[in-house]
């Protein structure tokens, strides 16, 4: 029989996968992998603020991620720098500031490896409940805004012409990203969060024939990566977070093979092609 700590790790990982993978579909469709990476890097800055002001780490990471999102949004609106340049500036600056701030707090003993690569095997029952509460809330909001968010993703100008407010939709999307990163930081760590968002979605894109189907398939692949990675970690005594990502990578390779066969039989394979002129 499995130990309690392993059951808790499984439940926490599955709780993250059911929201990270569907949300990751929009990251893939919008070509925002670097945005997810930027928010993930900002998590370390959130940790340093939490330690400095003695507040909850998850809350601090969530708030800092929202601040970074707002900075990104305002800098893009002002123009002058490309999106890639702004993302690179914020991503590496937030990571460096976080590391420097932690280094100055000599009175704090902190496991940087756990922050960078996760420590899913140490989650408590409270952590599991918190992860599921946050994930189900984010999933409910995603379902509510799905139609508008998808429309804005495909063509922002057309969505605006149909009476939608892309700015509000984009802000809700950013808040959801910040929430998922905040609650998943302990699961796979700062450096691997983006992989959990992107790889299952990229795998599902090879197999799905529609956006809703892709979101469901991505969630299934994410869950399979968590379960397979944790069992591999248990069997071979490898780090749990990286093991989950390696398992996700293996599933992606399998999806490439199966996806190639599927496309040969289904030449009208559906793909989402966001308008390149969308101001994200």
List its salient traits.
single chain; 280 residues; mainly alpha; ABC transporter involved in vitamin B12 uptake, BtuC; 11 helices; globular
Kindly identify the CATH topology of the domain at 4-189: ABC transporter involved in vitamin B12 uptake, BtuC
Categorize the overall geometry. Answer: globular
Helix content: over 70%
Top CATH class of the domain at 4-189: Mainly Alpha
CA distance, first residue to last residue: 49 Å
What is the strand content?
Answer: under 5%
Number of helices: 11
From the alpha-carbon coordinates, what is the Rg to the nearest angstrom? 19 Å
What class would the helix/strand composition place it in?
A: mainly alpha
The total strand number stands at 0
CATH superfamily of the domain at 4-189: ABC transporter involved in vitamin B12 uptake, BtuC
Which architecture of the domain at 4-189 would the CATH scheme give at its second level? Orthogonal Bundle
The overall pLDDT, averaged over residues, is 82
Residue stretches low in confidence (pLDDT < 50, at least 5 long) are 265-270, 275-280
H/E element sequence: HHHHHHHHHHH
Main sheet attributes: strand count, strand direction, barrel closure: none
